[in-house]
Amino acid sequence: MENKKLDSQYIESLEYIRCNSHLIQSTLKDYSHQITSLQSSLKPIVEATSIIKDIARTIKLYSSNIDVLKGISSIYLEISKTIPPVVEWFRSFNFSQLLAPLLDIDSRHIDELHTIYLMAMYECKWFPYAGLIADYTLFETVDEIIATSRGISKRREKRIDNAILAYYTDKKVKILRSNWQKLDLDYCLKKSLRQSIDAYFRGEYVLTISCLTTMWEGLIYIKAHNALPEERQRQKMSITKQELSELTMANDYDLIISDYFNNFIVSQCNNVTEVVEGVPNRHGTSHSWYKKYPNKKAALNAILLTDFIINLKPITVSKNESN
Predict the structure, then answer these.
(1) Taking a C-beta distance cutoff of 8 angstroms, is the pair 41, 89 a contact?
(2) Max CA separation in the chain (angstroms)
(3) 220 phi and psi, to 5 degrees?
(4) Which has the closest alpha carbon to 145: 165, 163, 167?
(5) How far apart are CA 236 and CA 193, in angstroms?
(6) Distances from the Cα of 270 to the Cαs of 147, 205, 237, 273, in angstroms?
(7) Which of 7, 254, 259 is nearest to 113 (CA)?
(8) In which element (H, E) is residue 93 found?
(9) Helices 66-92 & 32-61 angle (0-180, nearest 10)
(10) Which pLDDT does position 1 carry in this prediction?
């Protein structure tokens, strides 16, 4: 019953925002002639840019020719003549009518969409952060899946799996790896992080998961205590859970993020029958509770969780910036 209520709220909120979207599109059509006018004003700049490129080539060939410098001077004068019409266009454009539909959107509908979007990922055993760092195209795809499926089901989960795995291409994951190498971490940690993703690209998912699951507790400690890597200490998992929840809130993330960590990642997994496919459970991994070889979903979840943790601002830093 609760799932049907959520689906109903989602569709209602989606339709509300779509209606406002139509108003925005309608307003834009009314201003199409003004946009055409702007394009005409910009045309001389585009042409002048082409001329500048030609001059640049000339400079390269004849850098000692004084006439080239005179030519550049005349081009800048021509460009300066085209700027006033563009500025005047912006002054005359009435943006209030364009923004009105946006201002009329009730933020509660956006919040509902956001909550149900993340909940759908959570229910399909995806670390919700996957949706937060993605662009609108993933939201649009998942939105369509939610709107055309009847609550939680294996079919919905498979469709969302396919959408997320298709979105996070090797190119996108390489960007995450590149960003990790720029962080202020010990060389040994950065090398381990890099190799865990290299294993992911080779389809050696068990290596990715086995490596990353051993790092989360220490990385959370560094963030929670604003500590140096060499200052890490062992502590109770209950404390680590609480610290991640505090870090999540201090960094303005939804608590569903830390809930995923508590309920899926560090939850007890006492035997093979308790393994949840697609989830890189820390306890199950450390005891090799494998029903089958870990899949790409589990490995990508491990990578996304790692990216979330290492990009958190320490609690003390987050509090200072908010004040």
Answers:
(1) yes
(2) 82
(3) -65, -40
(4) 163
(5) 24
(6) 37, 22, 16, 8
(7) 7
(8) none
(9) 170
(10) 46
The kind and range of the H/E element at 143 are: helix 136-147
Question: What does the chain come to in residues?
Answer: 323
Separation of alpha carbons 41 and 173, rounded Å: 42
Tokens of 198: 């290299």
Instruction: Measure the N-to-C terminal CA separation of the chain; round to a whole number of Å.
Output: 42
Neighbouring C-beta atoms of residue 293, cutoff 10 Å? 10
Residue-wise DSSP of 251-264: TT--THHHHHIIII
3-class DSSP state for residue 208?
Answer: helix
Reported as a single tens digit per residue, the pLDDT across 205-244 is: 999 999 999 999 989 988 888 777 667 777 788 888 999 9
DSSP helix, strand, coil percent of the chain (3-state; round to 5): 75, 0, 25
Distance CA 191, CA 196 (A): 9
Average pLDDT of every residue of the chain = 77
Residue pair 142/117 in contact (Cβ under 8 Å)? The answer is: yes
Encode pLDDT of 156-189 as tens digits. 999 999 999 999 999 999 999 999 988 888 888 8
> Phi then psi for 307, rounded to 5 degrees?
-60, -40
Q: Is 271 helix (H, G, I), strand (E, B) or coil?
A: coil
Structural tokens at position 171: 């190119």
Centre a 10 Å sphere on the Cβ of residue 72 and count the other Cβ atoms it contains: 16
Query: Which amino acid appears at position 184 of this protein?
Result: D
Q: Return the closest-CA partner of residue 159 out of 121, 203, 118, 201.
A: 121
Which residue is it, tokens 């490129």?
53
What distances in angstroms separate CA 146 from CA 18, 124, 132, 274, one per listed residue? 16, 11, 17, 27
What is the rounded CA–CA span in Å between residue 250 and residue 213?
Answer: 23
Structure tokens at 244: 């991640």
